[in-house]
Design goal:
about 400 residues; alpha/beta; Rossmann fold; six-stranded parallel β-sheet; elongated
Length: about 400
């Protein structure tokens, strides 16, 4: 039983008007959409409501117009892509509330779709203005939120509407929330977390939250260098936040008290210059890094040991690469560990949840994204969830 309302809790919706919050903040190139992943994610919810005979009004933001109309940021730029993915004609409505929307609803037949203008053209959206939300809600019967990527923002169309209209999680949102509940809220233990990326400073809150929730914390990427430096290792020219070594030590102490093992690399891949396949590339013990070398990936022995750790775990949460994965061969550790996690997931001994932009790119690069139990494309919302924060857009959907 999920703790939030889903489309399964809806009664007969024939002829009813559904406001559906989706993510149409799509990547563009010269006026055309280059990637429709987010539309595809929202398609099951939209088509389910269409098939049930509802009039579906899509709500979305596009870019950062800062509360003013801006023709280059009209949601209509995404209309062709939305129609292509849905295989249906969609009516563009240049407002979000008022008589124009009411008239458009009168024209739409049951099972038709309308796309409302960029919600961020009005300052009331980001201010979560109750009057603005009420104006949008006035034309509708119920609200469906299918945009987890915007759920960490308390905006009028993510949180405000849910306080006025009956509110439900769409299918993509439901999948995301079910996966996240399984990964950190009620996980099967032992739980491992892989946290990588360049800087400790951007993941501090994540690390502080995780040490109390997981049994194994695997630290990779540039942030591992800061932890190694905190342990007294000389990391040479490596990317490292030397001013955060006390913080790193405090996190390791907290982990000790919580019974969480922190895994740092003991062999590393180093080079004097950061370029593809450099001549100065070598693998060494962390205590053998020369002062003119930089650590650019986790070494093969450590990766094998980390793979063995995953074999003892039931749940894995992954955010961030193990090394400088965009440049070969510094993608080796990320690819090897991702392949191990994928194999364990396929073998049904591991539930694996990953999220964040770099992470998705790294898992796609490793060719295993489709083998993980769940991949979240929501960067900011996924990070805040890993930090243990309440997401206003989710809280508003609770039963």
């Amino acid at each position: 039983m999920s703790s939030f309302r889903t489309l399964d809790d809806l009664g007969d919706v024939t002829g009813k008007v559904a406001l559906v919050r989706v993510d149409l903040n799509l990547p563009m190139d010269g006026g055309s959409v280059t990637d429709t992943t987010r539309v595809e994610a929202a398609k099951p919810t939209i088509m389910e409501l269409v098939d049930a005979g509802a009039k579906v009004l899509l709500l979305a933001h596009f870019g950062r117009p800062k509360g003013a109309r801006n023709s280059t940021m009209s949601v209509s730029m995404t209309l062709d892509a939305v129609e292509d993915v849905l295989g249906k004609e969609v009516m563009f409505i240049p407002e979000v509330q008022g008589p124009v929307v009411a008239q458009s609803i009168g024209i739409l037949r049951n099972g038709d779709i309308g796309l409302l203008e960029n919600t961020r053209f009005w300052p009331g959206e980001e201010a979560n203005d109750a009057e603005f939300a009420a104006g949008i809600a006035a034309n509708a019967d119920f609200f469906v939120n299918d945009a987890f990527s915007a759920a960490h923002r308390a905006h009028a169309t993510t949180e405000g509407l849910a306080r006025i209209l009956p509110a439900f999680a769409g299918r993509a949102m439901e999948k995301e929330l079910t996966a996240l509940e399984a990964a950190l809220e009620k996980p099967e233990q032992p739980v491992a977390a892989v946290v990588g990326g360049a800087k400790v400073s951007s993941k501090l809150a994540v690390l502080e939250n995780l040490v109390g929730k997981v049994q194994h914390l695997i630290i990779g990427g540039g942030m591992a260098n800061t932890f190694l430096a905190a342990r007294g290792v000389d990391v040479g020219k490596s990317l490292c936040e030397h001013d955060l070594t006390d913080t790193a030590n405090a996190i390791m102490d907290a982990a000790d008290h919580a019974g969480c093992t922190v895994h740092l690399p003991y062999d590393v891949v180093v080079s004097k210059e950061f370029s593809a396949n450099p001549a100065s590339l070598r693998v060494c013990n962390v205590h053998e890094v020369a002062e003119d070398e930089m650590i650019l990936d986790v070494g093969p022995q450590a990766v094998e040991a980390l793979g063995d750790v995953l074999k003892t775990c039931k749940t894995l949460v992954w955010n961030g690469p193990m090394g400088a994965f965009e440049t070969e061969p510094f993608d080796d550790a990320t690819v090897a560990l991702a392949k191990t996690a994928a194999a364990l997931t396929i073998g049904e001994s591991l539930v694996s949840v990953a999220g964040g932009g770099d992470t998705v790119a790294a898992l796609n690069h490793a060719g295993v994204a489709q083998d993980f139990s769940y991949i979240s494309t929501a960067g900011g919302a996924f990070l805040e969830w890993m930090e243990g924060k309440e997401l206003p857009g989710v809280t508003a959907l609770k039963k």
